[in-house]
Amino acid sequence: MGKWRYGVILDAGSSGTRVHVYRWLNHARAVKAADAVEMHSLPKLETKKKWTKKIKPGVSTFGDHPGDVGRDHLQRLLDHALTVVPEDQVEDTPIFLMATAGVRLLEPIQQKALLSEICSYARKHTKFSLPECNLHIQVIPGETEGLYGWIAANYLLGGFDSPEQHDHGKGHHTYGFLDMGGASAQIAFAPNATEAVKHANDLKLLRMRTLDGKQSEYKVFTTTWLGFGVNQARQRYVKALMDATFAPDTKELLDPCLPVGLKTTIEGEPIKSGKSTGSDPVLMGTGLFEECLAQTYPLLDKDAPCADQPCLLHGQHVPAIDFSVNHFVGVSEYWHTTHEMFELLPNDRAYDFTKYQKLVKDFCGHDWSQIESGLSEGTWGNKATARTAQDVCFKASWLINVLHNGIGIPRVGIEKSANGSGFNVTKEHTAHVNDKGFLDPFQAVDKIGDTEVSWTLGKMVLYAAGQVPPATSDALAVGFGSNVAGHALPPDFQEAGSNSNPVSIDEDDSFAEAAEELAETAQEHSRSTGFLLFVIVMLILGYLFRKRERRLKLVRVYNAVLRRNRRPGSPRKGRGLFRPGKIFGRGSGHYERVLEDGESAREFELGEADLDDNDHSDGSESSSRTAQTSGLATPKVNVSGFEGGPYFTDSPVHGPGVAMGQTSLPNAMDRSGLVVRTESRERLAPNLLGAGRRSRTGSPTRLKSPVMGPLDEM
Q1: Which of 28, 210, 564, 567 has its CA 20 to 30 A from that of 322?
Q2: Which of 139, 161, 188 is the last residue of a domain?
Q3: Catalytic residue from among 117, 145, 195, 340
Q4: What residues make up the domain containing 689?
Q5: Of all residues in the chain, what percent are helix, strand and coil, respectively (each to 5)?
């Protein structure tokens, strides 16, 4: 295992699929580098913008022909992930595909066929860890999506790791989470102590684990409103508009939620002047934002019967929200609708109800021709497009209604707070944004620091926490489930995964990690002279650290850099002057060719002898396999079911290394437990007959391997 652990997750949404790659330090390295504060924190995940890739359309479009989803959709995303995850880490890297609103709308039989095909394809065409289809490839309910988002927001804001710095009063230190997409909306928050006791059965029990192996538990309420996303809400609005005003001879429906003078079809497509629309009526924008607010309010369905008080929207139960301690962050449409159209200045990023409503009202009152001119001149910001300009009046009215009339977020602007203290909430946010804390009742966010607030991050944080070894033998599993009294592991508890046995870090590992960091730096600047500088550094390191195992690790790093810098299917680079054989050691063309491939470099490990010594080697099957088996043992990953056990458990490495001069060797299969390649015997020594071949039993490298020993049968 290397310095890093990796995780791959695919967010299969309604409009497209996005692959995210995350990484975190393996536990042994993280503990070694952690200070006292970090030991009480969750694992630190990181990602980069270029590690994410989105393609369209969504996987739900393959519902009628699932057999095409792999070739026509998944393969591009898998290829992208493989350019990020090091080749020798792929088998130890879990992959997840979580489908949301789009796939939820498919028939159950279509869902099952589609998910089955996705799992089969990923297993066949990659070596990513995918032991259990039902847990790794699934349609997640909106409540789970909201919970993952809640984890991500609090993880990035610091609510988990430094509760004393995020004390909101009454012992509360976490933030609420709001998400709105095209089809649905979610809310997740931890109620105050009183509400948590009163509505205990409505909460989710979430358990995580910090680096010191100690568990932390949270009780979170989460729910979803299907049909309350902006696109579905717009469809319901247009239907209500038609039902209220449509008559057989109606040619135009006046729409206060469109800018003045804009004409669209019922489906929302703009109509050019003079273009025939047939018999269907058209929508004519009037830009009356106050009227738009009034007409979108009934869509909240606040009058629906509430079987379990209290309720917010659509008769759906939600515990009372104490806004003195519950401060919310909103992502997705909450961010896009408040920022993409009007692109507020960096020092004015906090949501201000008064200012925002005035901006939208003024904008919607403009004539559409003026708005189009402003778009070309950049008046409305660099991110504004004709489509966002067309939709913003409705989206803004819907967002304002959901926030303030639905959920009940206080309408706080720059006026004094309700307690009359003169506290300026907007300025307070600006002052606290750098230390990951704010006191606003609501704040729209896209990123916190340099990391996007995405529910996929929450899923991977939970998984990484599950990789931490527990501090005690009776520790409970990491994951989430229903908050059932008296049940530490309720029947519906989903385990996040548990740790492989941690790998110790020695001097050679530290050396390889330093080289890997150099490789990553070179990769980021490979189009400049930086890559040449990296090669020079590697030459120096190869001279200073001439022990064979260290040079082989440099070879692997070198090959990994070459692999990451070429596109899938492109010719290999690095042959010629900078071939590994010329940089890292001598040998014939056969030896250089073997080392060019990272996989071969791991499988073959020769002594210092020249190849001529092997010309008369014994050609028997047993001796050839003994000579070809790698001298470095790798812990094997055993896979167990998720229902009653962890995701992964490593079998221990048994026994000491083979000593020089040992006269009897175990069978190759008993010693390594792996099926080895035999193709390179001819490459390494074309003439294998006769005696005199040097046995790898006596190879100096075998004596220096700290983990040498037989492995269990796979």
Answers
A1: 210
A2: 139
A3: 145
A4: 508-632+662-704
A5: 40, 15, 45
Grouping H, G, I as helix, E, B as strand and the rest as coil, residue 177 is: strand
Domain membership of residue 126 (yes or no) is yes
In-domain check, residue 300: no
Q: Is 182 annotated as a binding residue?
A: yes
Closest CA to 535 of 579, 473, 585: 579
In Å, how far are 10, 13, 563 from 99, measured between CA atoms? 8, 6, 31
- Annotated binding-site residue? 183: yes
Does any domain span residue 641? Answer: no
What is the DSSP secondary structure assignment for residue 129, as one 8-state letter?
Answer: B
216 is an annotated ligand-binding site residue: no
Residue 185 annotated as lining a ligand binding site: yes
Query: CA–CA separation, 276 vs 633, rounded Å?
Result: 74
Rounded to an integer, what distance in angstroms lies between the CA atom of residue 553 and that of residue 578? Answer: 16
Query: Which residue, 106, 139, 172, sits at the end of a domain?
Result: 139
Return the exposure string of 382-406: e unless at least 16 CB atoms fall within 10 Å of the residue's CB, then b: eebeeebbbbbbbbbbbbbbbbbbb
- Name the pTM for this structure: 0.72
pLDDT by residue (tens digit) across 126-179? 999 999 999 899 999 999 999 999 999 999 998 898 776 777 777 778 999 999
In the annotation, is 145 catalytic?
Answer: yes
Residue among 412, 450, 456, 454 at smallest CA distance from 434:
450
- Which CATH number goes with the domain that contains 95? 3.30.420.40
Question: Is beta strand 479-482 parallel, antiparallel or unpaired with respect to 494-495?
Answer: antiparallel
